Amino acid sequence: MRIRALVLVASGAVALSALAVPAAQAATAGPAVTFSSLKVNSGKNIVVGSTATVTVSATYTVTKPANLDASSIQTGPALYRGATLGENSDDMLLGDDPGTCTASSSTVLKCTAKIQFRPKGSDEDGDLFSTEAGTWKLGALAVNADEGLTWQGDLGTTHLQRRSTLTVNASPEPVKKGKTITVTGKLARANWDTNTYAGYSTQPVKLQFRKKGSSTYTTLKTIKTTSTGALKTTTTATADGYYRYSFAGTTTTPGVSAAGDYVDVQ
Q1: CA 205 to CA 211: how far, in whole Å?
Q2: How far apart are CA 34 and CA 124, in angstroms?
Q3: 232 - beta bridge partners?
Q4: Coil, strand or helix: which one is 41?
Q5: pLDDT value at position 237?
Q6: Mean per-residue pLDDT, 111-135
Q7: Residue 57 belongs to a domain with what CATH number?
Q8: How far is the CA of 93 from the CAs of 69, 80, 138, 176, 260, in angstroms?
Q9: In a 10 Å sphere around its CB, with 0-12 CB exposed, 13-18 middle and 19+ buried, how is residue 263 labelled?
C-alpha cells in the first residue's frame, strides 16, 4: 500500500509526512469531526500523462465540536480502493500537505487541499501503476495529536485516467472525386510504469468527416484498433474537407479526437 499520510510526530504536534505508513498503524479513533461536500478536481476526471506529476485541487467542509480547537487538527482528502477507507483499503492516495481551512463558524471549517499524482516510473516518489487507472472512491481524514486519525469514506467517486493521444492521416492528397481515400492513424495512452505512450488495442474509434465550410463532423463508420493501437480504413472521396478519428473514451482512458486532416477533392 502506497500512502502519503498524515502522521503524528514524537512531540505530539501534527504534521504531514511523505513517508509510506502502513494503515494498520493508524488509529481509527480520533477527533469528532465529519466531512461533507468533498469535490476533487472540480468533479472532473483526473488525467495523468506518462511522466509529469499532476496536481489537482480539492474542496471540502469539516464539521467539528465547538470546543475542539481548529488549529489542533489537520485534514486532507483521500482517494482509495476497497470496501473501506483505512486499514482495509487496497490502495490509498493522499496529498503531500494538509488542507488549509478557514472557520465559517465555531463548528464549520471550509477547506482546500492539493493532491499529487505521479507515474510510477517517473521518479522514486512515483506511486501510480498503469493497472490502477479507473474508478477510485473519495474520502477524507483528520489527525489530532492527542486522539490519532479519523477516517470517513464514501464521499463520492472519481476516475483516474491515463492520458490518450490520437493521430490521423488521409491520402492521397489531392484526390479525384469518387476515388478511394485511405485513412490511417493510431490510438495510444500513457503507460505509467514505463513513462511512454503505448497503443490502446481493440478499441472502437469513429472515422468522421467535416465538409469544407462546415463546423460539424459526421461519422462515416466505426472501426477497432489493432493490437498495437493502429487504425486503417478506406472511404470514397466526395468533397473537399477534413477527416479525423474520434475515440469516446473508457473509465481508464479519456476520450480524444485527432486534428482533422484536409483532403482536396478535384
Answers
A1: 20
A2: 34
A3: 184
A4: helix
A5: 98
A6: 90
A7: 2.60.40
A8: 27, 6, 10, 56, 38
A9: buried
Which of 110, 132, 161 represents a domain boundary (last residue)? Answer: 161
115 shares a domain with 229 = no
In DSSP notation, 128-146 reads B-GGG-EEEEEEEEEEETT
Residue 103 pLDDT > 90, yes or no? yes
Q: Would you call 245 helix, strand, or coil by DSSP? A: strand
**pTM of the full structure:** 0.87
Judged against a pLDDT cut of 80, whether residue 31 lies above it is answered with no
Measured between alpha carbons, how far is 165 from 61 in angstroms, rounded to an integer?
37
Domain limits for position 254: 164-263
Instruction: Tell me what pLDDT residue 164 has.
Output: 98
DSSP reduced 3-state for 70 = helix
Look at strands 73-81 and 134-144 and give their pairing.
antiparallel
Instruction: Find the distance separating the first CA and the last CA of the chain, reported in whole Å.
Output: 61
CA dihedral 123, 125, 128, 130 (to 10 degrees): 30
Residue pointed to by grid coordinates 468533479:
43
Distance of CA 222 to the CA centre of its chain: 27
Q: Which three cell numbers stand for residue 105?
A: 463558524
Q: What is the pLDDT of residue 123?
A: 67
Q: Give residue 156's identity as a one-letter amino acid code.
A: G
Please check whether residues 174 and 233 belong to one and the same domain: yes
The cell numbers describing 259, all together, are 486534428
> β-strand 164-171 against 148-152: which pairing, if any?
unpaired
Q: Which long-range contacts (CB under 8 A, 24 or more apart) does 124-127 make?
A: 125/18, 126/192, 127/2, 127/4, 127/93
